[in-house]
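During the second half of the funding period, the structural biology subgroup turned its attention to how the target accommodates small molecules. The most pressing case was iron/sulfur cluster, which had performed well in the primary screen but for which no bound structure existed. We therefore specified the complex as follows and requested a full 3D prediction, including the ligand pose.
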Amino acid sequence: MKSDFKELVSWSDSEYSSLPWRHNRTLYTTLVSEIMLQQTTVGTVLPKFQSFLDKFPTIESLASSTDEDLREAWQGLGYYRRAVNLLKACKDLQSTDSFPEDETELQKITGIGPYTASAIRAIGHDLPALAVDGNLKRVLSRYLEDFTPYEKGLDDSLRKLLTNKEFSKILTQLGPRKVNEALMDLGRVICRVKNPLCLTCPLKPNCKAYKNATQEKLPVRTKKAQKLIDLNLIRFISFNEQDEILLYKKNDKEWLADQWELPTVAINPEDSFKQYPHTQLKIPNSTPLKTGITKYRIYNYAVKHEPAVVHKEIPKLAEREHRFFRLENLPHISTATVKILKKLKIHE
Ligand code: SF4
């Protein structure tokens, strides 16, 4: 086991030690990066991480930020709830002198849940812990051939490794930070959900799933994957004579509350769908941009129209908060709107 993990850490060091959050690390930057990386890919976080830290270099600067500033800095990272948690954590931490080392104590800080607590302990403090996210669950359940169901006890089962003498020794010798980061890298790049690249994997020599060809049966899922529903949206691109673009603000009852979006209609969705006004318009004959939210796989069709036509298609737009914005002065816009404007080369 030890030689596998030694290989793993040295592979991760040579391939991924340049990730920006692995340089000049502090407990604060660890907190920021770990929260940013939850439910988001490394590729999405890479261009945002440093600019976020430039804007909020300390716990204090983040704790005293305005909602508007935080939203602007978080733009493009999605799931704004995570930024709210980060803000809550910084407000709590500001009033204490230090980051606790103990996971139970860490979880007493508002906004820090079990995963973030173990990540701060393992990666921030470099103390024995396992930050058991989806990647670690996949890698370790396969390596150990642990058939405990994902939703029923796999976390706890894998954490028992910390009481295994051989593994504890490995963690101490190689460093909990390095081991955790290397496992995350492996899960992201090699031990993939489908078609894991076992032949190039540093853990292959003692991986039980590889030996028994059970990789794709692990981790065991008891819940069926949610069936995705296709949703076709028309996103209206509409400028006034001053070359300002029309956007409207999402309300509290909608997806992405408080963010601004292109005026949008849904093409013949199921009757119960309330997120966007329904339209009988046909699916445009153009290539859509694909996005997703909750159970929906969304096909976004950008359609250019005069503001008057947009208001005719969406009569209720007039009753909602809507405005024209200069492109160099956009408010906090939704990730889908960012992607559409970028794809159309309207706004980078
Ligand atoms: S050998 Fe294959 S299944 Fe085992 S840890 Fe490596 S990639 Fe995953």
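Two results from this model are relevant to the next phase. The longest strand covers residues 229-237. Residues 139, 142-143, 190-191, 196, 198, 201, 203-204, 207, 209-210, 215 surround iron/sulfur cluster (CB under 6 Å).
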